[in-house]
Amino acid sequence: MAIMVPDAATAAQTGKASYYKHGKRTANGERFDPHGLTAAHRTLPFGTRVLVTNLKNGKSVIVRINDRGPHIRGRVIDLSLGAAKVVGLTAMGVAQVKIVPLTKTAAAE
Known about the structure:
Strand content: 35-45%
Structural class: mainly beta
Radius of gyration: 13 Å
Distance between the termini: 9 Å
Number of strands: 7
Largest sheet: 6 strands, mixed, barrel
Number of helices: 1
Shape: globular
Strand order of the largest sheet: 2-6-3-5-4-7
Order of helices and strands: EEEEEEHE
Oligomer: single chain
């Protein structure tokens, strides 16, 4: 069994997050699923799993990076609508979040 742990090689980030619910294709070529748990980040590699925590309410979600963005200055990540609902972002539209890239590791038995 594998567990997700913080990626020691990649630092956590804090900043503003927003969400998007429309799109045809993501930057990695997938069909955009607004209800999926995915996100857009400017530099993290496609497929990276990221723990996103809304700093206002403490709610978290793990998303997979499959797109590039955000395209608005000052934001660190754009969440899909599905992920935004999990962390309670849809009512506000924009929230302060902490993002922590994760990596898989084998669990000790």
